[in-house]
Amino acid sequence: MSTLSVTSPIRSAGRTGPLGLFRDIGIVMTRELRPLLHDPFSVIFGMVQPLVFLGLFGPLLVGSLGGQAGTTLGDAGVWQWFVPAILVMTALFGTSATGANLLFEFQTGAHERMLVTPLSRPSLLIGRALKEMVPLAGQAVVIVLVMIPFGFRLHLAGALVGLALLAVFGIGLGALSYALAIAVRRQDWMFWVVQQTLIFPLMLLSGMLLPLETGPGWMRAAADLNPLAYLVDAERALFNGQIGTATVLWGWVAAVVTALVGLAVGVRAMARSAE
After folding, report:
1. 162 vs 52: which has the higher pLDDT
2. CA triplet 14, 20, 25: central angle to 5 degrees?
3. How big is the CA angle at 128 (ends 24 and 120), to the nearest 5 degrees?
């Protein structure tokens, strides 16, 4: 483990302000995407899980609800209910695991070398998190195209807003994942213990896989405190073409709050990692 002492980064003129931040984000994002471009099969392999869920869990979901499927999932049908949730699940697993890449950079010393560059601290978090949105966008296009013959109806404007909403949420979750990686960098096995312990309750309490309307009252009350539940509801509304609704507004509130909290925690953790 490298213990390189990092001093304050050299800030050059023109790198301050929003334009400098966007430029730094682009640099970090490009750097993070290079391995992906050299190994595109990881993106293809990443599509296996969502397609398996769609192919096996979707029909099972309809069968388990029986005659209540129409009233529980809505008149739009099971795929309008399930496909947006699968995209959220893909983003959830992808961005929450980004901290594992940082653990590898700690081992190689790459993280310390990044800290002595003039790149801003938020750009290191945002650029890495947005990198996860690139394969997600590609996977979303393929998943939607695969599901259209099965009855899924694409509302393009809502789908684009939905992907933007996922990107904002992914920035926050990715930043929290990096903060976790920094906190447990001397016991890296703890990263997966904490990540797996948190991610599955959040997923189940979001109504992502099963409707919460049929669950007990305490579960619905817990879901009200879960920002992921608001995001899932908003994605379903957006992919059904309902852009200007209160459900979508609450989804944006959940995503923006997650992004702000994630960046605040992540930047603070990254600053401490340089001490």
Report:
1. 162
2. 150
3. 30
